[in-house]
Q: What sequence folds into this?
């Protein structure tokens, strides 16, 4: 019996890691709609996300930015995008990236003894090596550097974007499935004497809208019975179902490895889904609630209460100090953070300390963060309108005329914040900076492409843009 107990204690110690800190897995969905997953009452089958929601806590007022790169940068730095250089997205054919003096969550957790991995979509700089994940605190990298790829061909237009440890990788399969499989490989190979931080940002359900045929058929049959829905919804449901299946593989692998009980899992979405996100108004690219309020789930058995709704206001920057605190990391850094440690709010019922959320500040014409917007307490300034979000979460009634003092105070606050902006890097077309053709994202990878790459990208079917150009030329020739 004593031998058995000693062995059991050894297994538990291995699962917890040498530091005693939990493993941390952050799963990020891309463009998911509020009302699509099962745990929010949606028609997509998401049993694994539903499991995380029922076994953990859901944050009902969790805010992000209205588009992707600003949210990702805010998550990884704990600082608003007007400070970290990512108000403007990292575009496809683009040299700019997140400011390089920003400290990332991966760096902080690695300093605390974690093995750090990113498996999925980066989108904080896809060209210069200084911007790539392994220079920003990650020990391991897999997936795409940019905003989007074809789920099967791994290309954006004719630019390839699929890599492992910053080496161009040729791999067959559906990217959502491959991300889940790669996570499983990393977990199986990892020695959990050292805790794991895995950041798993799926490119699902971002466009292009591609899904496995069997799932497409399943949801086309479903939407045929749902008035007002069509192929757009069918594809999004199918892509979400595929992501949930990959999340199921991730959970199963953690369970088989014996570390699920000591793993904090965080799931959230980068911005509102395209089109609508009922019960909230608006979607991606807008600072209405439907564009910036997203689902967020935390799951850690015995540490995060199950079946709990946490109503306190939080912003994605708050995950930085919260996760560093859980992992035993330090907040001693040169750049001050905007985030607040929310662990006691999530686990002990303490009221949220956050009274302000900044979505977009004025003064930068190329910003992708949408119209000026800030929330202070119950009140939200959105462009020239003012709403009471507590009383009017669907933002139907503009009360700016009734509360000019609040309207003016929030405008003044945004002007103060704009004066604190750090100038971002210049966004320049990659093709204008190189002599050779652009085949693959990653400056060093493009300078030394594998021999299969050029024939591969040239052999792909015509893109929508190429077809449109050909059609325009044909019209011109016929005149």
A:
């Amino acid at each position: 019996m004593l031998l058995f107990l000693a062995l059991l204690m050894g297994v538990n110690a291995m699962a917890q890691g040498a530091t005693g800190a939990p493993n941390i897995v952050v799963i990020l969905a891309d463009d998911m709609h509020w009302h699509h997953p099962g745990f929010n009452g949606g028609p997509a089958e998401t049993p694994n996300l539903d499991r995380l929601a029922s076994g953990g806590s859901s944050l009902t007022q969790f805010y992000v930015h209205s588009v992707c790169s600003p949210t990702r940068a805010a998550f990884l730095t704990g600082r608003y995008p007007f400070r970290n250089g990512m108000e403007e997205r990292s575009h496809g054919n683009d040299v700019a990236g997140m400011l390089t003096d920003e400290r990332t969550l991966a760096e902080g957790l690695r300093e605390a003894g974690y093995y750090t991995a990113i498996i999925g979509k980066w989108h904080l700089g896809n060209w210069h090596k200084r911007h790539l994940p392994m220079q920003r605190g990650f020990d391991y990298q897999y997936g795409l550097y940019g905003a989007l790829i074809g789920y099967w061909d791994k290309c954006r237009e004719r630019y390839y974007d699929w890599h492992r440890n910053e080496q161009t990788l040729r791999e067959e399969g559906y990217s959502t499935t491959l991300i889940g499989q790669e996570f499983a490989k990393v977990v199986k190979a990892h020695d959990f004497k050292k805790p794991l931080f895995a950041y798993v940002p799926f490119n699902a359900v971002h466009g292009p809208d591609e899904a496995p045929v069997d799932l497409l058929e399943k949801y086309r049959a479903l939407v045929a019975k749902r008035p007002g829905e069509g192929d757009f919804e069918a594809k999004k449901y199918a892509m979400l179902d595929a992501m949930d299946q990959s999340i199921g593989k991730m959970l199963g692998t953690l369970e088989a490895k014996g570390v699920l009980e000591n793993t904090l899992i965080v799931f959230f979405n980068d911005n509102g889904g395209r089109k609508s996100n009922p019960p909230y108004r608006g979607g991606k690219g807008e600072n209405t609630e439907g564009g910036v309020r997203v689902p967020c789930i935390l799951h850690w058995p015995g540490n995060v209460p199950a079946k709990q709704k946490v109503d306190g206001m939080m912003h994605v920057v708050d995950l930085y100090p919260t996760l560093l605190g859980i992992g035993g990391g330090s907040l001693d850094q040169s750049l001050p953070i905007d985030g607040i440690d929310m662990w006691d709010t999530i686990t002990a019922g303490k009221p949220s300390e956050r009274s302000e959320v900044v979505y977009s500040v004025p003064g930068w014409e190329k910003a992708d963060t949408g119209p000026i917007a800030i929330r202070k307490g119950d009140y939200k300034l959105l462009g020239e309108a003012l709403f009471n979000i507590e009383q009017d979460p669907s933002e139907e009634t503009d009360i700016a005329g009734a509360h000019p003092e609040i309207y003016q105070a929030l405008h003044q606050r945004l002007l103060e914040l704009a004066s604190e902006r750090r100038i971002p890097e210049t966004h320049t077309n990659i093709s204008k900076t190189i002599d050779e053709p652009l085949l693959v994202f990653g400056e060093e990878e493009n300078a030394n492409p594998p021999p299969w790459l050029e024939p591969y990208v040239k052999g792909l079917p015509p893109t929508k843009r190429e077809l449109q150009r050909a059609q325009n030329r044909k019209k011109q020739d016929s005149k």
In short: The longest strand covers residues 23-29. The chain has 15 helices and 18 strands. Confidence is low (pLDDT under 50) at residues 1-18.
